[in-house]
Amino acid sequence: MGATTSLAGKELSVAAGATVSSTVQIRNSGTLVDQFTVDVVGEAVEWARVEPDVINLMPGTEGQATVTFAPPRDSSVRAGVVPFGVRVISREDPSLSRVEEGTVQVEPFNDLQIELVPKTSKCRRSARHELVVDNAGNYPIAVELDAADPEDELKLDIDHRSLTIEPGTSAFLRLRARPHDRFLRGQDKRHPFQVTAMTAEAAPVTANGTVVQQQLLPKWLLPALLALLALAIIAVTLWFTVLKPTLISAARDTAEQVVKEEQKKLSDKADAAEAKAAKAEERAAEAEKKVGEGGAVAAANLPGPVTGPGGVDLARGQAFDFRITTDAVATTDLNDFDGFTADPLPDGKTLVVTDIVLQNPRGDSGTLRILRGDQILLEFGLSNFRDVDYHYLEPLTFAPGQQLKVEVNCALPGAPEPATGRCRPSVSFSGRMAG
Q: 305 pLDDT exceeds 70?
């Protein structure tokens, strides 16, 4: 049983945003009717498709599938050689899978963009802009930057004049523009300028900006000074004619009232202290009398031990840990589970599981269950984890006679297990065991 395969084109070339195809020839070299699944593995899997991806063949017959590669025109796929594999899996004998290898050359493309933020700024002495240089192409690009204004009215400085930008990334640079001449008063002046990004592979890219130069003295300064002077005169007049006499009188009345209230509070506190002292003397006399008569104080009852689920004393239980390793046979039946159990518990012991660690180092696909007898407690997809742990505040309890079991449905073994057709995830348990 199995298949004989061949790939028509093993060295392909395609431009980003375009497509290129190759065909894989499949021959059923077995003696039974077989179904073959065809897929792509490797870095190109995200932008590759197979049609048809399932082929049914009689013994000794052939069929073919078309593999199409369509890398997107963006920075997610870098220019260069990308290796791939076309995998053919037999349903009757998955262990005899075939992989035809090849490469696809993704051609480079250039997409450089620049932007000034803000495009228009206002200043008296100097203005600041942020220059964003974005490489939306699929390969690193070296960029030279130049800033100039046609009237030569500005001094323009950029953080870096030369830089290399990786695909799918942006460089954020500071640009400072300072007018050569300044003026105290007058109308605003507009100074346009331009930033140019140059590369060896493509035409220059430009971004336009404008600096609006304002007078050094703010327009609101003189009216504000006059208003402040008028307010100061009004405030001084009010202080000496109205506010100061009123405040002095109010302060005097308030002080007298505060003194009277404090004296009353002190008198009340003294009376309360004398009353408490008298009561304390009376209680002391009563206590001495009771002691003389042989009175005794009852002892407080101490609380009993705290128990966990199932009545198990977690503080006194015996700690345990063990691991269940599985060895499930690959199957296409989603309801076919292989079961695995740990060593039997001692008679009369209760198992309290507080920690679980799941391991799937080979990347098997399928389903894993943890059961208490026939009751499913937890169910996991193997392809969703490699290593994961769980810690319970309310632990899983297994009463005496209840069996802890692990079941596995093996859909597709991970590397290098496809040759053996078995899945081998494992589960580690820890907690306490008590009678």
A: no
CATH 2.60.120.1330, domain 312-434, yes or no: yes
Question: Which class is domain 3-107?
Answer: mainly beta
112-213 CATH pick, 1.10.1240.10, 1.10.10.10, 2.60.40.2310, 3.90.1210.10: 2.60.40.2310
d(CA 147, CA 189): 19
CA distance 148 to 154: 8
Going across the sheet that includes 11-15, the strands are 11-15, 98-107, 80-90, 34-42, 54-57
Task: Write out the DSSP string of 217-250.
Answer: S-TTHHHHHHHHHHHHHHHHHHIIIIIHHHHHHH
Whether residue 416 has a cis bond before it, omega within 30° of 0: yes
How far apart CA 378 and CA 372 sit, in angstroms, is 10
Q: What is the pTM of this model?
A: 0.47
Going from the C-alpha of 341 to that of each of 198, 296, 369, 373, 408, the distances in angstroms are: 68, 60, 12, 10, 12
Assign 261 to helix, strand or coil. Answer: helix
Residue 302 pLDDT level (bands cut at 50, 70, 90)? very low
Burial of 81 (0-12, 13-18, 19+ CB in 10 A): exposed
- Give the other-Cβ count within 10 Å of 88's Cβ: 22
Average pLDDT on 321-330 reads 92
Are 130 and 172 a contacting pair, CB within 8 Å?
yes
